[in-house]
Write a structure and sequence with these properties.
By secondary structure, the protein is an alpha+beta fold. The chain has three domains: 84 residues, no CATH class; 89 residues, Pdz3 Domain (Roll), CATH 2.30.42; 177 residues, 2-enoyl-CoA Hydratase, Chain A, domain 1. It is built from 13 helices and 19 strands. Strands 3, 4, 5, 6, 7 and 8 form a six-stranded antiparallel β-sheet that branches. Strands 10-11-12-15-16-19 form a six-stranded mixed β-sheet, with helices on both faces. Strands 1, 13, 14, 17 and 18 form a five-stranded antiparallel β-sheet that branches. Helix 1 packs across helix 4, helix 9 packs parallel to helix 10 and helix 12 packs across helix 13. The longest helix is centred in the first third of the chain and has 23 residues.
Length: 447
């Protein structure tokens, strides 16, 4: 390699190395005066010299021999992206334009479809659809793989490119080609984009004294909104609640502090979540403050494979504290912390810097939260649900007292919307959660 070419490539390589070193030590800008000392300069910083030589050689080969002319900027940016993509699904390089896009996606108001996504094996995987958005109304499910957006294949796109392609003017349409595990062939779904406005917390009464609280996403105001909704339910019940169903299904997460606030609403003392990482000053622990807004009234938490991140923190804390029964299917398993590191060129590095751990020390990452009571996300028709023999709380209490209750029986069915209650007849997991909640209330009243 000619000295001039070798020097110019090492200068370019210094940009890549600078990104790496800047994470913890500031950007390394020091290098020799092109007198043949470059290798010693790199080695002095403890970097893998042989691997860097290989990188420079490949970069030069591509520049000289690739079928099309590729700019240095494109080659280096692709190298950086590949390095971060190989770490985990959540670490990424954001160029200046993508960095700006982050503020759009976190503003709570944007034109789009209403889905939380991540990359998986080159395709876009749906973490969860957001309530009351085009995606949820069209039946998009957690775990769906998006393989085409309109006529463009997703394979080869960056996550930000895919997100941008799905966004657009409210009222415009886009067609997604979906792969779903239980279906043999891909299928298409056409959605009309809308302005996405997320209401973080919603509530209603399900039955006499039993409340339902749905958290769709965790924002900075979620803790305050939760307490306000519980007070509204208590006003409607004319007194303390007998228990609540806390619905975290298809909740992709959000702000850590909001998860802590939600768990702290029900936990009297002890740990809520801890963060552990390798870098200095990464470790943190969040503890509950005294007070339980429900004064020990039972809680059933509904989760599924679309419950991720902050949802898993809440479910894990309540489970480890024995404060709630977790019902549903295993959660998503997104238990890592990403730090956004702005770079000198206006771009940014999104890097996984730590992981979340439940109070008992369980890692959430890739493991998720295993529910105490497993139940599939099945639907039943109104005709099927209306054919169930009702049990009153008195019937349930007697069955519990005599140990004659069949664990598979549906007990104390709550009122459906058509009967003046708050339960959708097709929502079987919620139906079962409320039955379990009533049983817990009766057992608690005996103590």
């Amino acid at each position: 390699m000619r000295p001039k070419t070798r020097s110019s490539l090492l200068i370019a390589l210094g940009v890549v190395i600078g990104v790496i070193v800047s994470i913890g030590q500031g950007v390394w800008a020091e290098r020799s005066d092109n007198n043949g000392d470059d290798d010693g300069d790199i080695a002095a910083h403890g970097l893998p010299l042989e691997e860097l030589r290989t990188f420079v050689e490949i970069l030069n080969r591509v520049k000289q021999g690739y079928v099309e002319d590729v700019s240095d900027q494109a080659l280096l940016e692709n190298s950086i992206r590949g390095m971060l993509d190989g770490l985990d699904p959540h670490s990424a390089y954001l160029n200046a334009e993508e960095f700006k896009e982050i503020s759009i996606s976190t503003s709570g108001k944007f034109g789009g479809l209403g889905i939380e996504v991540q990359m998986q094996n080159g395709f876009v995987r749906v973490v969860a659809p957001i309530d009351d958005t085009p995606a949820s109304k069209a039946g998009i499910q957690a775990g769906d793989l998006i393989i085409r957006i309109d006529d463009t294949a997703v394979k080869g796109m960056t996550l930000m490119d895919a997100v941008k392609a799905m966004r657009g003017e409210a009222g415009s349409e886009t067609t997604l080609t979906i792969l779903r595990e239980e279906r043999d062939d891909p299928f298409k779904v056409t959605l009309e984009r809308a302005v996405i406005r997320v209401q973080s917390v919603k509530s209603r009464m399900l039955d006499d004294g039993y409340g339902y609280v749905r958290i769709t996403q965790f924002s900075s105001q979620t803790g305050d909104s939760l307490q306000r909704e519980i007070k509204n339910l208590e006003d409607e019940a004319n007194g303390p609640l007998r228990g609540i169903v806390l619905d975290l299904r298809n909740n992709p997460g959000g702000v850590l502090s909001a998860a802590v606030d939600v768990a702290d609403t029900f936990i009297n003392n002890g740990d809520i979540v801890s963060i552990r990482g390798r870098a200095p000053n990464t470790d943190q622990q969040f503890d509950a403050t005294p007070g339980d807004m429900l004064d020990g009234a039972p809680i059933v938490v509904l989760v599924n494979e679309g419950s991720a991140s902050a949802s898993e923190i809440v479910a894990g804390a309540l489970q480890d504290d024995s404060r709630a029964v977790i019902m549903g299917t295993r959660t998503f398993g997104k238990g890592s912390v990403q730090t956004i590191v702005p770079l000198q060129n206006g771009a940014a590095l999104k890097l996984t810097t730590a992981r979340y751990y439940t109070p008992s020390g369980r890692s959430i990452q890739a493991e998720g939260i295993e529910p105490d009571v497993g139940i599939q996300n099945v639907n039943v028709t109104a005709a099927e649900s209306s054919g169930v023999t009702p049990f009153s709380e008195a019937d349930l209490a007697g069955a519990l007292a005599n140990d004659t209750l069949d664990e598979d029986a549906i007990v104390a069915p709550p009122k459906t919307k058509s009967e003046g209650g708050g339960l959708a007849e097709s929502d079987y997991p919620l139906y079962e959660a409320l039955n379990l909640l009533k049983g817990l209330h009766i057992l608690r009243s005996r103590d």
